Amino acid sequence: MPSRRLAGFAVLLIDRMTRHGTTLLASCVCLGLIWPAAADTVRPAMPVMVFIFVLGTLLRVEPPVVIATARRTGVSVVLPVFVMIACPILVGVAAIAAGLRTDLVLALVLAVSAPPSSGTSAVARMLGLDPAVPLVATLASMALTPLTAPVIADLFSAGSSLAVAPLDLALRLVLLIGSAEGAALLLRRFVGRALNRHARAVDAGVVTALILFALGTMSGARAMIENDPEFAMGVVALAFGCNIFLQLFAALMFPGNLRMRFTTGLIAGNRNVGLLWSALGAAVTPTMALYFAASQLPIFTLPRVIQSVLYRLEAARRTRSAT
Question: Membrane spanning segments where (predicted)?
């Protein structure tokens, strides 16, 4: 009887975490700013959290669904190319045209060169969107990352003291992504059936990793804001502006119904900056770290806004249809 109660409580907890994940993510970002010590404690575990939610994304691959979605070339080819090549080049050119300083331009380009956030599929599920589309787009984008991110970073850092070694970055990305893919293949091979039975527990693990990652990204953010509040607020505004622009741009560029457009926007706007952050290591400058931290704010707070906007738009559409 106690074991049944414990199992029931675990199922309820997983359900609540998945259902209210957007609120939890936003709350943890705020917690990290209010309580810097908690963010500092979690910060060293960020690479592990990145590994967990990349692994979780790969473990949630359901071959029949993924194969069916992957046959849509708009999702498996066009969208990843748009996200991984067109978006960072567009953002980099716009940043240079706007006269932003070199280290901030490179921070923007690196952030947008990252593949879609590995938690986007889980976030899409929280929002009631189709999780298969971000899953396929993320998998294809992750495969492209070691090829595209180093080249684009080198293109925008060439000639500056902030030059990024493309080969070194590519090798680090291959190691990070390849190790997660290898672990996923082994787990699928030996405990595949158990994973399918406990798919919601995998989702809960991804959400937990996202929550801790969101908390850890705020490490040092409060100090940087207090040291130069005007510049820091400008960087935060830039991060929100970039994310919202990419979401709106992708939603307008790609066809589909309202939910599909919201899904496409999430894929383009929310990037796995932690992957590049972990791969770059000591090469990350204070300005890059500030922008990378700031870029987490829209990733973890906008889904709650999107949830509200989507609900209102669909309610308005139902009202119009009824009349």
Answer: 42-61, 73-98, 104-123, 135-157, 169-187, 199-225, 231-254, 275-294
